[in-house]
Amino acid sequence: MEYRYLGRSGFKVPALGFGAGTFGGVGPLFSAWGNTDTTGARRLVDICLEAGVSLFDTADVYSNGASETILGAALKGRRHQAILSTKLSLRMGDGPNDVGASRHHLIEATHAALKRLDTDHIDILQLHAFDAMTPVEQVLSTLDDLVRAGKVRYVGVSNFSGWQLMKSLAAADRLGLPRYVANQTYYSLIGRDYEWELMPLGIDQGVGAIVWSPLGWGRLTGKIRRGKPLPEGSRLHETAGFAPPVDDERLYRVVDALDAVAEETGKTVPQIALNWLLRRPTVASVLVGARDEAQLRQNLGALGWSLSTEQVARLDAASAVTVPYPYYPYWNGQFSERSPAPV
Fold it and tell me: From the candidates 62, 154, 180, 194, which is the catalytic residue?
């Protein structure tokens, strides 16, 4: 297993991590993702640890806490072998303070997550969304208290915009509070928005990307093809409404390119899509999910080999879109020597 630094933290994480969103199966979204129970989870954790996949990611909202509970049970007796990552700040109850990043909710939600995970500390704690109603200084101060208490090791964010993340990093530097070192972000061959602003920010500020949904919400599994209906067993029948929209022609163009590279390399479409991500700047770890052992083993096959430069260029071209202003270089290269290096 290849290990990479998580931003500028000095802490290393495996290039592939395991996303436990398939554990539990509670609710309309997560039941479509998977319903792995504790027995099945133990087997998947066995395979991960044997392969060096020691990073396990979950969230309190995944199956209303069931994912954390099952993951904690699956790791019982071998917690020391794992890097535990979880997320909080989305709504976890009907009360007025059961949501957000207030001091009250962050402390209560962290304690609840520790109990469900059956552990005394969380290695990487990420805010699941930006809370515009709580000053970033208060958020960082609370996280500092949790770090100093030994309940949290490193802090990060998920689903933040560039200005939200940068405002938080600037406040952390100004006040001497913990910096976010992880940005858990959506990124795939059909979802490259991360490159417009968050990737350059990550390069500049030393924030590592932990990638979720690297197969584009199941669109890059190799089962979706031009001119064919959505496969009967695809989870997109239930989850398409939650997923970022993708232009059909662009999706098929990417799938065609993946098919061509698959034929050349003897690798599967998902393995190629994952390998492409592993080459991208700032990417520290790519989270793979699996509903069964076969899926997991196939995803692990994304490691140990590399796409050629020419193959990467073809995938880049097939997935490219015109970026919006101000990221589009409307000055036609006049100031290219003073512009950031291409990513």
Answer: 62
**Which pLDDT tens digit goes with each residue over 251-271?**
999 999 999 999 999 999 999
pLDDT band at 342 (very low <50, low <70, confident <90, very high): very low
Residues 77-87: tens digit of each pLDDT: 999 999 999 99
Which domain range does residue 123 map to?
Answer: 3-244+280-305
Instruction: State the CATH number of the domain containing residue 37.
Output: 3.20.20.100
Q: Determine the Cα–Cα distance for residues 85 and 77; give it in Å rounded to an integer.
A: 18
Which pair of structure tokens corresponds to residue 152?
């949290």
Residue 299: name the closest of 215, 192, 186, 185 by CA: 215
Q: Is residue 254 part of a domain?
A: no
**What's the domain count of the chain?**
1
SS3 165: helix
Is the distance from CB of 84 to CB of 123 less than 8 angstroms? yes
Asked if residue 164 is part of any domain, the answer here is yes
Known active-site residue 327: no
The stretch 169-184 carries a mean pLDDT of 98
Which sign does the torsion angle of CA 185, 30, 127, 44 carry?
negative
Evaluate whether residue 250 is within a structural domain: no
DSSP 128: S
Strand partners, 185: 211
In this prediction the pTM is 0.92
Among 270, 271, 186, 212, which Cα is nearest to 55's?
A: 212
């958020």: which residue's tokens? Answer: 139
